[in-house]
Amino acid sequence: MAYDKFDILNSTAVPLPIENVDTDQIIPARFLKATERVGFGDNLFRDWRYNSDESPKQDFVLNNDTFNGKILVGGKNFGSGSSREHAAWAIYDYGFRCVVSSFFADIFRNNCLNIGVLPVQVTPNFLQQIFAAIETDPDCTFTVDLAQQKIRIDSTSASEGFEINPYKKDNMTNGFDDIDFLLNIKKEIKKFAQDTPL
Amino acid sequence: MRKTLFDKVWDKHVVHQIDNGPDVLFIDRHMVHEVTSPVAFLGLKNRNIKVMHPERTFATADHNTPTINQHLPVQDPLSAKQLDALEKNAAEHGISFWGLGHEKNGIVHVVGPEYGITLPGATIVCGDSHTSTHGAFGAIAFGIGTSEVEMVLSTQCILQPKPKKMRITINGNLDNGVTPKDVALFIISQLTTSGATGHFVEYAGDVFKNMTMEGRMTVCNLSIEMGARGGMIAPDEKTFHYIKNREFTPKGPAWVRAMDYWQELYTDKDAKFDKEFFFDGSGIEPMITFGTNPGMGMGISKSIPTADAIEGGAATYQKSLDYMGYNEGESMIGKDIDFVFVGSCTNGRIEDFRAFTEIVKGRKKADNVTAWLVPGSHKVEKAIKDEGLLNILQASGFELREPGCSACLAMNDDKVPEGKYAISTSNRNFEGRQGPGSRTLLASPIMAAAAAVTGKVTDPRTLTN
């Protein structure tokens, strides 16, 4: 599915300074039963966000009006666990367009890139600077510039570069997806398939 | 150039290389289940295209299926709708479908090898992270997201950057009571849940050579739990013997041709890995987890580590122990157990049920324990009955359920209640994994058996001769 183009994102951020945030926390398995991609944002971090009686857990960051924005900042090894793309969908559907961490799990990172959520991997030191900036001022904004591959803390002007595969960068910048690309080389694939026994 | 096992299989499947981009990798066999496929099929519909190679695509229902009364309509309307969608999508695109009640139904990673869908040197994907299981046969097998499922359905290819390569070598003899599950939990405890991220792992050494195919599947299955996309083991006579004459394996001249390729599938001497680890098999104990990720495991005779002995943040570590209701420095032996789950794509094969039965034979299920024994497939279920294991299990107070993923991820009704402790042969002990508020201890089938008959965490070696 083609998605929104990603250019420059300027936004406040929501801090989640926990390590090893796994996909079962991002979206518990019992919410994976939809046959269409709708409504996943409501169940983002469901069991951290709500008590068993559905009342909001006041100490969880998504229930705290102080923190808002299109950027989610997580601890090391964000998105470990299952391959469920629903985790990335939930993050997107909730309104995030970028996730920042010092380390991402592979499948989660791919899933994000495939639906137009930009995973930005920074150094552990810069991650701490980001958390500190939000703690100092929750209204502090960040600028994520995909073309320049840079993230900046606007309040301190500190910035850091991040890596992204040039092909994926091009896709995100233009809102292309991989299937468009693959369908364009269908002849080549068909030939390969013929030469490859089942 | 000297090649690794991984290089040989990967390079053979590259259709097209993108400059500065990922490789276009041809996928030999694609396995599909009900949870991660409906949105992908919807994508095909929106693009108005058909599945490119239905004969390379295999569908089974497993994740949300009930494990009792499978002959009755599925009660949960959302699960029923998802199962119905898979059946319709499979029919519309001409894909073989082993749905609920079908004699070949079972967990996708259990039935794949059982019917020879899984082959050495093949590329295999599925919208499930434990697709790494199939690496036990020397295949490149990895889990993918739904956008990628759509990619493979529509073009039989996937765009992937070639991962880095890691080799984990373990030699030495395993002690009594140490199973493949313990070997895997030991490795993850050493590497952590992110230690192999970005890498594809090859397992080498006597310990893996000596394992049965079932054991190798357990180890490769858990590769994802240290962050690896997948793990693989070079195929050998044991592998070829296992797959020969299965329904979807090549026959006659095609078998001979395939063997020519398969026999070349090993890492060349002096081939280079990006990372290597070596461990001594004789130092591995029966393992159990005490925290909320699979890297938080320890030998059963050890104590729960202190935060300063653990890499990472103390706050995250404390949050995890608080969730489990445990403290630093405690022994796990004697901890209360409420539920025992034997099953899943990790340990739901016949060998696992044999091992479990061996321990409970002549003993009784503890009264405080609810036990869910869930075979990985109908084939496993049949073997449990045919080998006489069911009679022994029943005499000890256990019942057998019907196949499915069950309490591994608790999408169906097999949920561990809030605050309760489950010893589980599955793969993840994340918060709420087995039901909201559930607490999971990962262990081998024999550790699970020891807990099932004593009602608490018990070193299984105290129950074996």
Task: Sum up the structure in keywords.
heterodimer; A: 198 residues; alpha/beta; Aconitase, domain 4; four-stranded antiparallel sheet; 33% helix; B: 465 residues; Aconitase, domain 3; 2 domains; four-stranded parallel sheet; globular
Word description of this protein:
The complex is a heterodimer of chains A (198) and B (465). Chain A has helices at residues 23-26, 46-49, 86-94, 106-115, 124-136, 166-174, 178-184, 186-194; strands at residues 8-11, 13-16, 71-74, 98-101, 118-121, 142-145, 150-153, 159-161. In chain A, β4 (98-101), α4 (106-115) and β5 form a beta-alpha-beta unit. Chain A has 198 residues and is an alpha/beta fold. In chain A, 33% of the residues lie in helices and 16% in strands. Chain A is built from eight helices and eight strands. Chain A has one domain (8-194): Aconitase, domain 4, CATH 3.20.19. The mean pLDDT of chain A is 95. By secondary structure, chain B is an alpha/beta fold. In chain B, β1 (14-17) and β2 form a beta hairpin. Chain B is built from 16 helices and 18 strands. Chain B has two domains: 1-285, Aconitase, domain 3; 288-459, Aconitase, domain 3. Chain B is globular, with a radius of gyration of 21 Å. Chains A and B meet through α4, α6, α7 and α8 of A and α2, α3, α5, α10 and α11 of B.
